[in-house]
Each structure stands twice: as C-alpha cells, then as structure tokens.
Amino acid sequence: MKHFDEAYSGKVFIMSRASFDEADAVVYGMPMDWTVSFRPGSRFGPNRIREASIGLEEYSLRLDRHLEDVAYHDVGDMLLPFGNAAKSLEVIREFADTVFQAGKFPLGLGGEHLVSWPVIQAAHAQYPDVALIHIDAHADLRESYEGEVLSHSTPVRKSCDLLGAENVYSFGIRSGAREEFEFAKTSGMHLFPFEVLAPLKEVMEELKGRPVYVTIDIDVLDPAFAPGTGTAEAGGITSKELLDAIYLLSSSDLKIIGADLVEVAPAYDSSDQTAITASKLVREMLLGWVK
C-alpha cells in the first residue's frame, strides 16, 4: 500500500488477519516524533505496542468479546520523511482520507500527538459534525511552541479552530500554560482537569448519536502506570480508570468513528509496562468501539 514500507517486518497487532478491503477497522502506525520538546522516541511506540500484544488474551472478560469477532487489518507503520513535519502530516492525511472514505474505522498508533491532527482533519471532512474527545495530561492548546505552529503542543487548539471549540471535550488535563487554560475558559470548549471518568459520564447525553473521534495520550496515566512516554506528568489517573473510560464509551450511544493512542516511548520503560498497558487499551478499543 502506498506510503507503507514494502519490506515491513511483519509485526502486526495480535490477530490482525483481514485484508484492507475486507476489514471493518484498520490499525496503522504513525512513527513520528519530529516536534517533541522534551524526550524523543515515540516513533518506536507503534511497533513496541504490537510486540507487547502477543502477550494478550484474545478475549476480553469485561466486554465478553473475542478478537475473532472484529475484522481488522494492521497495515504497519507509515513511511514518514524524517524531520519533515509538514510532509509527514500530508502523508497521514492522505491515508486517513482513504480509510474514512472506505467506511472503515481508523485506529492509529503514535508517535507524538501532532499526528492526530491530520486524522482529525480527515474525520471532519467525512463527518462535518464530528466531536472530539481528548484524553491527556496536557492541554495541547498552544497556537505555536517556540515559534513552530506544527508542534505536539498544538493539535487540540487546531481542532478547536476547525471543529468549533464547543465540539471539543478534553479530560484528565493537569498541565499547560496559563494562556491555554484562559483560552479554554473563554472559547466555549469543554476542559475537565485532573479527572476522566466522572466528567465523561456527565457529557454522554449531549454527545449521544453524534460522530465522535477519540484521541488518547498515554501520559494521561500517572507515570507509575506508564513511565514510557516523552513528557511524563505526575498526578495522573490509573490504568483501571482509563480502561473504565473506554468501557463507558463502549456502552454509550456515541458513534465513535475513529481513534488513536499516542506518545508511547519505549526507551524510558525497560519493563515494557507502558507498551503492555497500551496493547490492552488497543484491544479494548477494537472490541468496544468497532461495531
């Protein structure tokens, strides 16, 4: 497939078996960390998540579903031009357009959080009334960072401008510049600091029936649960709380049309705890959100 390595190593998420054409969901890696401001390495996240998935059971006790019930295809990692953020985002956007136009569920693995932006653009092109659920430690509401408008700290601000701030819902936020929180207060967006599950329950009714795209940054978890990330932030939620949020979304009347999980950086976690957790999150997203 265009933009994917023909010599790809063959590592795929556990039980990926359908072809692209036969799949209801498409798993793909976005190995980019060109704009990170602290610790790089998230470009190695997608493959480590795949490697960790081999230790998973194919069955989810909580959801009472088996991976054999979901037709999904892992196309591997994109070939992104090293260091060229603008061109990388073009490549991601082109592929995301293809997935949405084919009526499939895209599940992206990052990579830094900027990789979500072109997918959100593609989601909006296909679903003009799409809402964004953003689960993260960081607000990501900057217009630029150190003069760069293409930065991992900007995708949610860009999404507010594109979707309308009132259609953006951020949960678990516990870090950001003062100006970011001032923007959140005045723009009409919905920002819920520190907590995820309780405020998520509060907004389910108003999002019912709407197309929703979900982006999850692994650093919403406390570093005790996910040390392998580029910008760890103390005071986060537990892995159980994040799983419960996924289950809540699974049981709701939301129309989840795509999702991503970003910022796994394996170099900072010799135990692979972060990748193991991420692989389970991906499994539950596939089983809970791909109907």
From TrEMBL:
Its EC number is 3.5.3.11. Its cofactor is Mn(2+). CDD domains: Agmatinase-like_2 (cd11593). Binds 2 manganese ions per subunit. Mn(2+) binds at H113, D136, H138, D140, D217, D219. It is an enzyme of class 3 (hydrolase). NCBIfam families: agmatinase (TIGR01230). Belongs to the arginase family. Agmatinase subfamily. This is Agmatinase.
